[in-house]
């Protein structure tokens, strides 16, 4: 009987702070999406006010069971209608501040879950 999940090719978050996250040794200062199978791509938004329904439609294209949305230094929710593409694919979305999203992503990744994280990183 095996008790350890198979190794994942997903990127874990090695550090975070106001306006940045670290993936391995690299510090990133722009919004980013990380996910299963090594997914790592910029997320084209600099502020919460820049978000549109298209940002969440793009997240629905990721092959993951759930998406964590790090909404910046505080929890901010997008209009529920924007989440329709995720719901149609039966993907969960959890909104939390960016620091909590980083911690939760690493935890779920460690459990072997197919999780993605969309982090809104704003300059302090």
TrEMBL record:
Tree of life domain: Bacteria
InterPro entries named in the record: MTH938-like_sf (IPR036748), NDUFAF3/AAMDC (IPR007523)
Signal peptide: none
CDD domains: Xcc1710_like
Coiled coil segments of this chain: none
SUPFAM superfamilies in alphabetical order: MTH938-like
PANTHER family: NADH DEHYDROGENASE [UBIQUINONE] 1 ALPHA SUBCOMPLEX ASSEMBLY FACTOR 3, NUCLEAR PROTEIN E3-3
Name of this chain's protein: Uncharacterized conserved protein, contains Mth938-like domain
Native source organism of the sequence: Paenacidovorax caeni
């Amino acid at each position: 009987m095996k008790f350890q999940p198979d190794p994942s090719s997903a990127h874990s978050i090695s550090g975070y702070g106001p306006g940045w996250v670290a993936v391995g040794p690299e510090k990133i200062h722009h919004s980013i999406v990380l996910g299963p199978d090594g997914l790592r791509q910029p997320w084209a938004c600099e502020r919460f006010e820049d978000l549109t329904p298209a940002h969440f439609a793009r997240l629905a294209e990721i092959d993951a069971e759930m998406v964590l949305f790090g909404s910046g230094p505080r929890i901010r929710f997008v209009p529920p209608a924007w989440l329709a593409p995720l719901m149609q694919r039966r993907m969960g979305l959890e909104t939390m501040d960016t620091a909590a999203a980083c911690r939760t992503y690493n935890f779920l990744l460690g459990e072997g879950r197919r999780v993605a994280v969309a982090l809104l990183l704003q300059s302090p």
